[in-house]
Design a protein that fits this description.
Length: 223
Amino acid sequence: MQKQVRMLTEMAIAGDLPEIHKWHQENRGLSLSTIEFYEKLLKPVMESVGSLWEKNKITVAEEHLATASIDYLMTQLRYQIVHPGQLKKSPSILLFCLEGEQHSLGLKMVSDVFRESKWNVKFLGSSVPTEEVIKTIDKWEPDAIGISIALSPLLPKLKDCLTQISELGKNIDILVGGRVVSLYNLKDFGISNVHLCRDLRDIESFALKGMSKSQPVLSEGDA
Ligand code: B12
C-alpha cells in the first residue's frame, strides 16, 4: 500500500489527472471498501503532501494542485457510491465545516460514507456561518449533524455553535471530527454530549445502523 500512496502522491502533486484516472482503472483489483480506500490511501496521500509542504519541498501551488487532484478522484468515485433511488424515509445528516475552516476533504469522505449507507446527506462544505447552520437545521430537521474542525483556534467557535444547536431543543445526534479530535481532549474545552470521531471507522457502525451493508468501491469488474 505504501507504494500506491507514494505513486498517487506524486501524480497528485503534478496534477496529472489522466495518470490518476489510469491508476484508478488499473487498481480496481485492490478491492478496498470506501472506508479503507480513504483511510489507507487518500488520507495518507494528503498527510504526505502536508509533510512535504511543511518541509518546503513542494510549493503552495503544488499543495493546492494535489488537493484538487484528490478531490477530483473522490468526485469520480462518488458516482459509484450515490444511490439514485434514495429513500425519503432514510435518516438524514447535515455536514459542515465551522466558519473559518477550509479543510473540507475529510468531511467530504464522511459524506460519501453516509451516502453509501443510503442516508440523505446535505454537505454544506467549508466555512459555514453558525447562523446559516441554525437556519438549515430549522428548515431541514436532520436526524444527525456532522461538524469538521481541523484548526484549534476555532475550538471556541465550535463550543458556541454546539450551544446554539442545543438551544434549539431538538433531539439530534452530533458527530464532531477533524484533526483537533485526535490532538486534544475536547472535554477540556467544555465540549461534551457529542460523538467524537477520529476517523471514518468511528462512524461505520453509526452510518450502517439500520442500513444495508457498504459495498467495495474498487471491486474487480466494476463499471
Ligand atoms: C489540504 C490542506 C489544506 C487545504 C485544504 C483544502 C480542502 N478543501 O480541504 C488548504 C490549502 C485550503 C489549507 C489551508 C490552510 N492550512 Co492546511 N492542510 C492541508 C493538509 C495538507 C491536508 C489536510 C487533509 O485533507 N487531510 C486529509 C483528511 C482526510 O484528513 P482530516 O481532515 O483529518 O479528516 C479525517 C478525520 O479527521 C475525519 N474527519 C474529518 N472531519 C470529520 C467530520 C466528522 C463529522 C467525522 C465523523 C469525521 C471527520 O475523517 C477524515 C478521514 O479519517 C494538512 C496536513 C495534514 N497533516 O493534515 C494541512 C494542515 C491541516 N493545514 C494547516 C494550516 C496551518 C493551514 C493554513 C493556516 C495555512 C495558511 N497559512 O494559510 C490554512 C488555513 C485555512 C483555513 N482557514 O482553514 C496545518 C494545521 C496546523 C494546526 N496548528 O492546526 C496543517 C496540519 C499543515 C501543517 N503541518 O502545518 N490546508
